[in-house]
């Protein structure tokens, strides 16, 4: 890559848009599923998680990319873990200070960003071999692709499971059986296993639209 | 005492299963569950590492990290609170423990080492290990024994889950699944169904 290349050249933009669809970290690369599912029973924690992961991936990518020529190959995993862990501690402290209730809800999953495979995966696959700016875009793109799935799953689970969105009621109270209506929440959507089934269905929809991704 | 340990053990295997209740270690769970044999190797390695790192993390937590834990160094350290460092300390312990376990197993049990092969180093970034440590921190166990048993139980739970999915995936090879759902998609849905089945254990009061 030449130094003259513009900041938003086509190649750089594809780093941003690729992970949203054909190279999505969750549905295609199978990275970062652990934390993706446990925090999506409601939309708000899902969004907070998505933003946290995006920031950590982007900055970890930049830091590793800046250091890439000085890190000895043998100890690179440890160096990566230290960089990631330091960033995650920052995120954790900020969340505790400003959105304490969400931070309680996310419980251990903020800490688990450290072992989120998206981070190690992107650092190994991209940041170690690329300049800081593309690495930053790659981080933002992958974080956003991860976030998109989290938000979609969060929307479905919160509307179907509790009839609200971001804590705001969507299904009118008068529809509920308790108030003489006909409707009842699907309590199953709140249970953890339904997150897996929802992601399974998202993969199904994505692959029927994009036939290239089908496995044999 | 014995009863209490047994409770923690059963609870961490079935009720608070790492995979089905918390989705920890899903990445390797999905990637390495194509055949029962490799799944078995990885499962045993996870039990091994969880059983060793959790007690070490427990000691670290209670004698170095929590507020007042350093008081054994002298009265000056009595109100030092290092708990914000726990992520970085735990991950360091996990990375070095996996390395240590790898070396010990290679030296004393070469056959086991050959079976586990590449899985041992991979475990350092398995979320189940760090997740186990963080849950252990949250649950605030009373003594070292409880933490060890919790680690072993979580490992066994993870082992059972990966063996289960691997066995089912071997069978799905012969079934007629819609093309876009093949591979990853159906694995997610099967895991979801297994999770619902495991929720049946939730009613057990221990």
What does the model show?
The complex is a heterodimer of chains A (216) and B (206). Chain A is 59% helix and 2% strand. By secondary structure, chain A is mainly α. Chain A has a two-stranded antiparallel sheet. The radius of gyration of chain A is 19 Å and the shape is globular. Chain A starts with 9 loop residues before the first helix and ends in a 7-residue tail after the last helix. Chain B has nine helices and no strands. In chain B, helix 3 (36-65) packs parallel to helix 7 and helix 4 packs across helix 7 (127-139). By secondary structure, chain B is mainly α. The chains are: A mainly alpha (216), B mainly alpha (206). Chains A and B meet through helix 2, helix 4 and helix 8 of A and helix 2, helix 4, helix 7 and helix 9 of B.
Shape of chain B: globular
Could you tell me the strand content of chain B as a percent range?
Answer: under 5%
What's the average pLDDT of chain B? 83
Number of strands of chain B: 0
**What class would the helix/strand composition of chain B place it in?**
mainly alpha
Greatest interface (CB-CB under 8 A), with counts per chain: A-B, 49 and 47 residues
In DSSP terms, counting alpha (H) and pi (I) runs of 4 or more, how many helices of chain B?
A: 9
Number of domains of chain A: 1
Return the string of H and E elements of chain A: HHHHHHHEEH
The percentage helix of chain A is 55-70%
Order of helices and strands of chain B: HHHHHHHHH
Can you summarize the main beta sheet of chain A?
Answer: 2 strands, antiparallel
Strand order of the largest sheet of chain A: 1-2
- Whole-number radius of gyration of chain A? 19 Å
What is the tally of helical segments of chain A?
A: 8
**Parts with pLDDT < 50 across at least 5 consecutive residues of chain A:** none
Number of strands of chain A: 2
* Alpha carbon gyration radius of chain B: 19 Å
How far is the N terminus from the C terminus of chain A? 35 Å
């Amino acid at each position: 890559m030449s130094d003259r290349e513009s900041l938003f050249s086509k190649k750089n933009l594809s780093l941003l848009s690729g992970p949203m669809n054909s190279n999505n970290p969750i549905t295609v690369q199978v990275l970062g599923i652990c934390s993706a599912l446990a925090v999506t029973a409601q939309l708000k924690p899902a969004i907070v998680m998505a933003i946290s992961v995006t920031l950590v991936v982007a900055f970890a990518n930049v830091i590793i990319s800046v250091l890439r020529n000085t890190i000895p190959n043998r100890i690179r995993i440890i160096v990566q873990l230290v960089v990631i862990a330091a960033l995650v501690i920052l995120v954790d402290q900020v969340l505790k200070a400003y959105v304490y209730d969400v931070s309680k809800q996310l419980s251990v999953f903020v800490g688990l960003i450290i072992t989120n495979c998206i981070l190690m995966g992107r650092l190994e696959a991209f940041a170690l071999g690329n300049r800081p700016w593309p690495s930053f875009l790659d981080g933002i793109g992958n974080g956003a692709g991860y976030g998109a799935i989290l938000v979609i799953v969060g929307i479905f689970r919160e509307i179907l499971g509790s009839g609200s969105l971001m804590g705001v009621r969507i299904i009118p109270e008068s529809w509920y059986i308790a108030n003489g209506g006909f409707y009842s929440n699907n309590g199953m959507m709140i249970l953890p296993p339904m997150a897996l089934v929802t992601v399974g269905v998202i993969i199904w929809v994505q692959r029927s639209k994009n036939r290239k991704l089908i496995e044999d | 005492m014995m009863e209490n340990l047994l409770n923690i053990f059963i609870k961490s295997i079935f009720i608070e299963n790492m995979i089905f209740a918390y989705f920890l270690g899903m990445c390797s769970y999905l990637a390495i569950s194509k055949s029962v044999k490799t799944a078995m190797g990885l499962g045993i390695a996870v039990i091994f590492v969880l059983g060793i790192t959790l007690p070490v993390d427990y000691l670290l937590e209670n004698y170095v990290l929590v507020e007042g834990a350093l008081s054994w160094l002298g009265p000056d350290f009595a109100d030092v609170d290092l708990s914000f460092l726990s992520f970085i300390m735990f991950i360091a312990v996990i990375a070095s423990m996996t390395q240590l376990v790898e070396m010990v197993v290679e030296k004393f049990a070469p056959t086991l080492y050959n079976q586990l092969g590449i899985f041992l180093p991979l475990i350092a970034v398995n979320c189940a290990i760090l997740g186990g440590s963080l849950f252990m921190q949250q649950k605030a166990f009373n003594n070292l024994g409880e933490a060890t048993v919790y680690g072993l139980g979580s490992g066994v739970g993870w082992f059972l889950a990966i063996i289960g999915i691997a066995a089912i995936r071997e069978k799905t090879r012969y079934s007629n699944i819609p093309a876009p759902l093949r591979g990853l998609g159906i694995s997610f849905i099967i895991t979801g169904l297994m999770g619902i089945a495991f929720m049946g254990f939730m009613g057990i009061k221990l």
